[in-house]
Amino acid sequence: MTRLNNLAGFAVLVLALSVCAAGILIPLYSDEIAVQMVRARFFLEDGALLNLLPQCRPLLMPIPASWYPGAVFNAILYSGASELGLRIRGIAICGAWLSLLWMWAGRHPQTLISKRSLQGVVLSLNMLGVLPFVLVLARSEQLLVVGLLAYCIFPIFWRSTETDGIYIKGLKAALIFLITSVFLLAHPKALFFSPIILASAFLIFRDAGKLWSVGVLLSLGFAIAQSFQHVQVASRCVDAPAMSLVLAQHTLDFQLLSTDRAAFFREASRNVASSLGLVIERVPVTLVYQSNWLPSVDGKWIEPGLAGFGKLLKVSLHVFALLLLCAGILRVVMELLRKRLEPGALLGISMTAGLVLHGVAYNVNAWHFYTPGLIVPALSILLLLVLDAQWPVSNWIRLVAGAVAFYWMLLAIASMAVLLPIQTPRLLQIARAGDDVIEGQSLSTPVFVREDQHAQIPSLAKRCGIHDGDKRLVLDGAAYFLFQHGRQPINVFYVSDYAFGMDIGQKLPEFLRKIDSGGILSRCEYLPKALLDRAIRSDKMCCISKADL
């Protein structure tokens, strides 16, 4: 069984490399570009973050002091990226995450299965269904996953001791603060994982001396408090009631705690009970995806087979997640009875608390195709935390564990063998065409665009007197990468009623004049009729000069 598992682990590794490499063909989803606009422009905007919703608050937002290290890190990592450059960065971060997970599994002291088998299992969990393509998306989930991994690896392999010099202790403290700054800046949902931030810091510095331990915990607690205050302010949208309602519908109303506790606990219970199933529902390979983030594929003849395999995948993940959570709780209880809580158990219960808080806070309509890119990797981390080197293991238990490991690796191999031939031909077709607009993917921007197609956008911009460097240009994804050097750019999706500009609607020209926009360069279909009548067209792209607003 060990030899068979080792061969399966090698097969998973080879296929994983192939699938992640194929991820370079995936068009950029609109959220990737929006997140890029926020995190890459810290230096360009003189030390402030770009606000995507100008109808809610000013275009530039001051940030908490504790976010500055993270903002500088993001600006260095992401600034100046092209479409291809952003996708490569996403693949690189995904590669870093999987490599660190692979190395940790290889050094894990468990004795249930071979090290290569454990490496194959944790890698397999991240290669199920469409998850490999989700993991390469340059979204906030990538930084959250890497952060969670760092919070678990450092207390296990890089704890500080009293014998460490002041420079080593200072380096560790600075690094954990930088990681926390990047983590909290990545997305408001990072706050749900505050327990693991504090548990990790406690474990790293508990033997370094009381002053260091208390100092680091206080600094991280300060960063968490600042982030919470900032999220409270940033989530308000008083002047845009429709947008405010959209934002409110995604999360549990915590004001119910003071007005209707029964309703609060009823909604919280519903959220947490349904969250796991709704996340897993987005994992399998299908022919059509939410928001068409991947191109639809013709293949009605394989639809029944995909549905059957998808059901097997979902049931397997559901059982795995529930058993894992139960095992984690059982380990904590057993160690508390022994009056000794090991680092893995403390980190595991902290991770579980974060996942439960995440499930409680988000309503059933908030689970999207990209959410498994956080939850499933977090479960693979939790698996490594729950496994205990001190468990007594008999030969028959090892045999069962080996069979279970082989099952997961076989499931991942089959999953990747399904994903690659179904999606890659269509993705290659889109890349070879090189068009700047992808039919059927209205929210996506192609990574590979022919030079003549690219040249049409600057040529159109000249006809409207628009230049790279103009302030407050309203841009779509394709235009942003060619005109990203002007101050305070505006993502067209967030002001047009095509997406999030429902409060502005047909008054968009007046709104843009009010904020002194430099003009519009966008795909025509994104613009309201009030602006289309004033636009200069070139194929499917439109521009409107500042004077014509």
Automatic annotation (TrEMBL):
<feature type="transmembrane region" description="Helical">
    <location>
        <begin position="117"/>
        <end position="136"/>
    </location>
</feature>
<keyword id="KW-0812">Transmembrane</keyword>
<feature type="transmembrane region" description="Helical">
    <location>
        <begin position="143"/>
        <end position="161"/>
    </location>
</feature>
<feature type="transmembrane region" description="Helical">
    <location>
        <begin position="86"/>
        <end position="105"/>
    </location>
</feature>
<keyword id="KW-1133">Transmembrane helix</keyword>
<protein>
    <recommendedName>
        <fullName>Glycosyltransferase RgtA/B/C/D-like domain-containing protein</fullName>
    </recommendedName>
</protein>
<feature type="transmembrane region" description="Helical">
    <location>
        <begin position="315"/>
        <end position="333"/>
    </location>
</feature>
<keyword id="KW-0472">Membrane</keyword>
<feature type="transmembrane region" description="Helical">
    <location>
        <begin position="399"/>
        <end position="422"/>
    </location>
</feature>
<feature type="transmembrane region" description="Helical">
    <location>
        <begin position="59"/>
        <end position="79"/>
    </location>
</feature>
<feature type="transmembrane region" description="Helical">
    <location>
        <begin position="345"/>
        <end position="363"/>
    </location>
</feature>
<feature type="transmembrane region" description="Helical">
    <location>
        <begin position="211"/>
        <end position="228"/>
    </location>
</feature>
<feature type="transmembrane region" description="Helical">
    <location>
        <begin position="369"/>
        <end position="387"/>
    </location>
</feature>
<feature type="transmembrane region" description="Helical">
    <location>
        <begin position="173"/>
        <end position="204"/>
    </location>
</feature>
